[in-house]
Design a protein that fits this description.
This protein is α/β, with parallel strands linked by helices. 33% of the residues lie in helices and 9% in strands. It contains six helices and four strands, in the order H-H-E-H-E-H-E-H-E-H. The protein has helices spanning 4-7, 11-30, 45-52, 76-80, 101-110, 158-167, and strands at residues 38-42, 65-69, 92-95, 118-119. A four-stranded parallel beta sheet has the order 1-2-3-4, sandwiched between helices. Strand 2 (65-69), helix 4 (76-80) and strand 3 (92-95) form a beta-alpha-beta unit.
Length: 174
C-alpha cells in the first residue's frame, strides 16, 4: 500500500503487477478445471486489479467477477473502454461507503475514475441484521464497543455479505 502521495500515482500499482499477475497465473495453472475466479479490491488495489486484468497487457488473465470497494479509481483508459478488463461487464461491481472521503480524494487528485459498472449496496439492512459500512477502512468494528462503526469487510455488514455473493458468482442484495 503506498502512502497518500504515492496513491495519487499508478507507480506502486505497476510495481505490484508482476507479483499479483504471477499469483493469479499460478492459481490458473494449478487448477486446470478452470474454477470460478473473482477479484475483490479495496482502495488503491482497484488500480492494481484493473491493470492485472487488462486484456491488452499480454498476461491473459481474467476473472469471472471484480468487486471494488472504497476505490481510489482505476486508470481512465478503462472507463473509456471497459471491455479491456477481462471480466464480464455484468460482473463488475463498485461500492463507496458513506463517509469514505479517501476514495473520493484519491479519484479527485489522481485523475483516476470509477467505471460505469454496477453499484452494490453497502448500507444497512436491518431486516437481515446487517449494518452499514462507513468510512474508508476495511475493518473497524470492536466487540468491546458495540456502537463502533463498521468497515467494508466487518462481520454483520451488508458490504461483506454482498462481497461474498459477488465473489461466488451470485447477485448482490439490493
Amino acid at each position: 500500500t503506498p502512502n497518500l502521495a504515492g496513491a495519487l500515482l499508478n507507480t506502486a500499482a505497476r510495481r505490484g503487477l508482476q507479483r499479483l499477475g504471477q499469483d493469479l497465473a499460478t492459481f490458473v495453472r494449478l487448477r486446470p478445471d478452470k474454477p470460478h475466479m473473482a477479484v475483490e479490491a479495496h482502495s488503491y488495489a482497484a488500480t492494481l486489479a484493473a491493470q492485472v486484468l487488462d486484456a491488452e497487457s499480454g498476461r491473459g488473465l481474467g476473472a469471472q467477477a471484480l468487486a471494488m470497494i472504497g476505490s481510489a479509481g482505476i486508470p481512465r483508459h478503462f472507463s473509456r473502454d471497459p471491455g479491456r478488463l477481462n471480466v464480464p461487464s455484468a460482473n463488475i461491481y463498485e461500492a463507496i461507503a458513506e463517509g469514505d472521503y479517501l476514495a473520493w480524494l484519491g479519484r479527485a487528485f489522481s485523475g483516476r475514475t470509477l467505471l460505469a459498472s454496477h453499484e452494490f449496496n453497502v448500507g444497512p439492512k436491518p431486516g437481515l441484521g446487517l449494518h452499514a459500512a462507513q468510512g474508508h477502512n476495511t475493518s473497524q468494528f470492536r466487540d468491546d464497543k458495540p456502537s463502533s462503526t463498521r468497515g467494508y469487510r466487518d462481520p454483520d455488514t451488508l458490504s461483506l455479505r454482498n462481497l461474498a455473493l459477488i465473489t461466488t458468482g451470485q447477485a448482490p442484495l439490493p
